[in-house]
Design goal:
It is built from 6 helices and no strands. It has helices at 20-30, 32-39, 51-65, 73-79, 81-88, 99-102. The chain starts with 19 loop residues before the first helix and ends with a helix.
Length: 104
């Protein structure tokens, strides 16, 4: 007997992109992420984006919001999670941008 399953409609996720792709591209041309990754290799227990990619994400926040406070980045990253993942080239979690993580 075949059961008819109701069609589940998935709501599209909408996220403001703002100036992040432009800032990410500009920072990518500087090679700052690669330089930081070369100087600061990942710790064995480190999870998530490299130090260089975290720095680029934080610089994107600073340049986009004109605010350098680390404790504000986590909430901002939560609202831009998909965009950050695309720009940085790997999946980004909100917890990757906590002030504890950025200050490491």
């Amino acid at each position: 007997m075949n059961e008819i399953k109701p069609e589940i409609k998935q709501e599209p996720e909408i996220e403001r992109v703002d100036d992040l792709p432009l800032l990410g591209a500009m920072l990518d041309t500087t090679g700052v992420a690669d330089i930081l990754d070369e100087v600061l290799p990942r710790h064995g227990n480190w999870k998530g984006p490299s130090y260089g990619k975290l720095a680029v994400g934080w610089l994107m926040y600073i340049l986009s919001k004109s605010d350098h406070r680390m404790n504000q980045v986590e909430g901002w990253a939560e609202h831009h999670q998909q965009t950050l993942s695309k720009v940085l080239g790997e999946k980004v979690r909100t917890k990757d941008f906590t002030d504890d993580h950025l200050g490491a």
